[in-house]
Amino acid sequence: MDMDDTYGSEPSAGAGAPIPLRDVVEAFLEQAGDGVFVTDHEDRIALINTPAELLFGYDRRELLGRHVQILIPGGLPRPSLEGQGGPGGRRWREAELNLLGRHKDGSDMPVHVSVTYPGEAGQFAATVFLRKAAPEEAVAPPGGLGPPGVGAEMPPIPTLNPEPRPVDPAPEPALAPGPGLHDRLTGLPGEVLFMDRLSVALAGSARKSSQVAVLLLDIDRFRLVNDSYGKAIGDRLLVGMAERLFGVLRPGDSLARVGEDEFAILCDDIAKEEGAATIAERVYQAVSAPFAFDGETVSVTSSLGFAVGSGQLNSPESLFHRAQEALGRAKDQGTGNVRSADQAARATEAPPAPAEPETPPDAPEVPPGPPEAEPVGARAAAEPVSRTAAESGPLEPPAPAPSSAAVAATSADSRLLGALQRGEFRLAYQPIIRLDPGRIAGVEALLRWQDPARGLVAPGDFMAEAEETGLIHHIGAWVLREVCLAAEQLQAAHPEDVPLMLSVNLSARQLEAPDFVDLVRGILAGSRVEPGTLYLEIGESSVMEDTDAVSGVLEELRSVGVRMSIDDFGTGFSSLLHLNRFPIDFLKIDGSFVEGLDRDSGASNIVTAVISMAHALGMPTIGEGVETAEQLYTLRRLGCDYAQGYLFARPQLLADTLRLLASDPTW
After folding, report:
1. Quick check: is 166 in a domain?
2. Rounded Cα–Cα distance for residues 554 and 567 (Å)
3. CA-to-CA distance for 457 and 416, rounded, in angstroms?
4. Which of 36, 111, 269, 521 is least surrounded by Cβ atoms within 10 Å, i.e. has the fewest?
5. pLDDT, tens only, 379-397
């Protein structure tokens, strides 16, 4: 039933634009204290208000267009059309009785129903007022008209515009998201109805001593989708996102569209914040898979913020605002993140600065091929970061020509996220040599991307992009998991009694994530890796950007048992004075200084000073980028502890690394 066509509309005051009566009736129903729904002439639910949704445990999208028996299995009573006439000769009759209702969870419950029927004989459109009845009250048989109050007269809802509504010259635009009652594009409630439901839920939580959660989801870079592929594709993405979100709601939860690319979820009866985090994870899983539009796909990410509170301590506005702050913090961390209000409150207010992308001096020499271990595409349970994907394709009529810059940005995001989902990233391992006695003491894991279009891609060609989009959190977590999965094989192949060092590069953006330490702790707990054998490397410039914040994170990592090393040391020589502030276990001397050892006395002096200062602070040193025997000889003479470079081995896949370890070479 189209309510606009059935009831007509009347002009808005001073605007001259027609207001669909459906919106007027919806506003009227939302003001009612009891549950109310309206049926069409075939007993299908055409309108329903928030109290009725809460009473039966449904979201209105599950009910609109469904037969009334989904709520009242025995159906509505059918009184004869008698009594005084209404406007236009219509006659009205009310039936008031107790009937058996059915909750979404399948349980039966007595409901007190007041049904009003307007219209000509043989034409029925019912307005049903209802509330939960006491268990001891008698329930009428299906279709009956039992007491109390049978036949009581009730004035009808007046007809605001009895004349047929003229056909609009142009299609009626979708209701703007946010302050409207319902969003016409997705069919979801707008912000007004969402806040009304939140108010009802908070009032209930105060009585039940439970809590309510508000989750806000924002599609990252949504305007790039519109700019690249046209508004039609953007609209299809919004509808698809709404459908996926709606599919994971619990009974009684509510979903709304509260902004151009923002959705709100209301979860009632939450025991504690961990429950909301579980729901946030389920939401993430629901929106992570690509959307297929006409055979073409494009991936986007989403940011999610949530807050939990009770009606005793929160107003609807304050709880919604806390969720907005959490969402803002998630977006500050890049794209594709989830943050709770408590995490946002604990986090520093300064926006993070992107780290310089790491470009290892070693050229990518890993041959293409499948990874040695099946990549783990799903996130570890301890990782609270979230991803989203969306797709698009041509429509009829064709979309406007996309902006080349917008397409490049969207395509870049899609490629990286797709590479992670398809398992295109590879890890290569390069040995670290203990110079006395000249045997392998550890390996460094180096990331490579096996791009089907471009071949093997080194980190320098995609790491800055990963930093900017926030995908570095997902990629970095994948690297940590893969190293820990390979650790058992690596340790078994290592012939010495001393465990092998496992070194992994970090980005400063990873350290900025407030849950990074929990991520590392969770990955270690799910593996057989001894924490003391895992070494996390961070660039010297990244350490010096925010010494207080970095020092705190490194101390937490040290408490987990993880070791830390400074990579590319020497490029910021003045930072030697600050080294005693950090819990550092190793210094890696930048390869540019090692390269000059066989021809530049200045480089030799710098390396000598770095080694001496590091040893004075109790830190061993590693010389990077060793390519010649003379460089190796000089490092040994200067007292360097470890070395790494092409002279010993190029980065290679796990199987080749295991063979190298088993051969136990010496230098």
Report:
1. no
2. 14
3. 12
4. 269
5. 332 333 333 333 333 323 3
